[in-house]
Design goal:
585 residues, alpha/beta, Spore Coat Polysaccharide Biosynthesis Protein SpsA, Chain A, 2 domains, 9-stranded mixed β-sheet, 8-stranded mixed β-sheet
Length: 585
Amino acid sequence: MTHSSVLSSVKFALVAILCSTLINRGFGQKSGNLVPIKDDDADRSTLPTILIACLVRNKAHTLPYFLTTLENLDYPQDRIAIWIKSDHNEDNTTQILRTWGQEVQDWGLYHSVSIEIIDGPPFRQSDQETAFTWSSKRFQLIMRLKEEAVKVAKKIWADYIFFIDADVFLVNNQTLKNLVAKQKDLVAPMLLSGGMYSNFWGGMKDYYYVRSDNYKDILDSKITGCFDVPLIHSAVLMNIRKKNLPNYHPVSDEPEDDIIRFAVSAKAKGFTMEVCNDMEYGYVLSPMEDESSFNADNIRLQNLRVEIAVYWPDGLPVSDLLKQFVQQQNPPSTIGFDQTYLINLQRRPDRLQKMDHALEILGIDYTLIEAVDGTELTEETLEQLGIKQLEGYRDPFSQRLMTSGEIGCFLSHYKIWEHMVKFHVNTALILEDDVRFEPYFVYQVQRVFEETSNIFLDWDLIYLGRKRSQNAKEPWVENSQYLVHVDYSYWTLGYALTLRGAKKLLAANPLEKLVPVDEYFPIMFDKSNNMTWKMAYEKRDLKAFSVEPLLMYPTHYTNEPGYISDTERSSILFQPNCTLKRDEL
């Protein structure tokens, strides 16, 4: 992603992968395009053998990412057999599988590779209305192929079979090793989707999905471990050394659905299905509707890639060989704003890496603003800059003075406002570096600001992400579907600002009576809960609104694993009643 940087701061388990083209390969030299993970463990040859089975249909958009994460699994490849079946493709799935299959043949590192491709014409089964219709013949074929995979796995004396769908992305390369180590008969790694969908059911009644009381707690990892659930799918490891294995034959009157029949069979045969969330394993695309399209599913993949990017430094990787098959990215733009600014601390390159990747996927070109690092500020620096805390300010919760991190955060935003005024930037999108984006973020932003033009909204600031106050009264803007009149709010995760708004924020001389920036905004649009603070600012006419629902949220919340605050966990610099002079930043 191109961006400009300005304004430096104050300083074997044979794994059967059901997908289809028959290539049983011997050992040979790898070409070098795909570099397998180096085996460092001394006893890796004693690990169970796995057949990885994958069934693929019309997954050209996911395959480069899926196959790369498959390659990256930290498990001895000579103890993995690959078994892929692919059928009825209307996209580039066949070419991708053939290219990748030839490459892994050249590696000669896997125990065996079997990729069988069954293509048309005809490219659809006779009872399919669309490429994505889950018809009776499609379910019958899936169940027959999965039964075939189990027979192949047994024939080659595999210990386990790992069924995995081609829209599952195991970004944690320890997934397979960790699942095998649990020595369970039927187990799945819990997969995230960026929403409430996952690869397990918390409950089932009359063969229909039922949301259990603990489903969300498991999904959100509020409780962790391995949990007995009625159904798992999409990524399932099964111990095939057991006798009387679950299958896809009907037990009673269950529907003609592979995952339901398998779950019912498992229960009838006394097998326990478990889903594990003891670590972060990976992601899965939510299912498509029958009437969906290739483009719609590709956009959903983009949404998921953005979600992965803000949590995993490498995002969703693609091998050099498979990059040629990655579908075209969005061309970079500022999505309708004159400028998009990204604030990042120089000592937090991890956040910059994640945000840069996410914004590249979104197609957002940005200007990097090196944040003012509060840890480098001193009382002398504040005095030279003429910065003074607002007399009487205390944090509403802890009753402390402002921290150095809060001061640095304010100055970082302040630099952007100054830059907007100096270079006549009429509209800007301002982003902090610890945010996650809602699906279809760019489309939703553009829709909001198209509406502001259509209803002739007179605005200075529009929140895209914030923390609402509990008792907020926020009526809808007249004739708007997406905007509300904003009440007292916290956080400055992301907001849009006009040139007029920037001028108002600067004209109030906030450095002479400083408060945290997320307290400053409500003061300026006259919604602060503290009358004393408001009175320190005579002109409070910032025209502020918020999108509803919000379009961005923090990546982590207080007390969650991975939560780090660069503002709250910093020292106090101000002394009560200190008086300093103001100079230029």
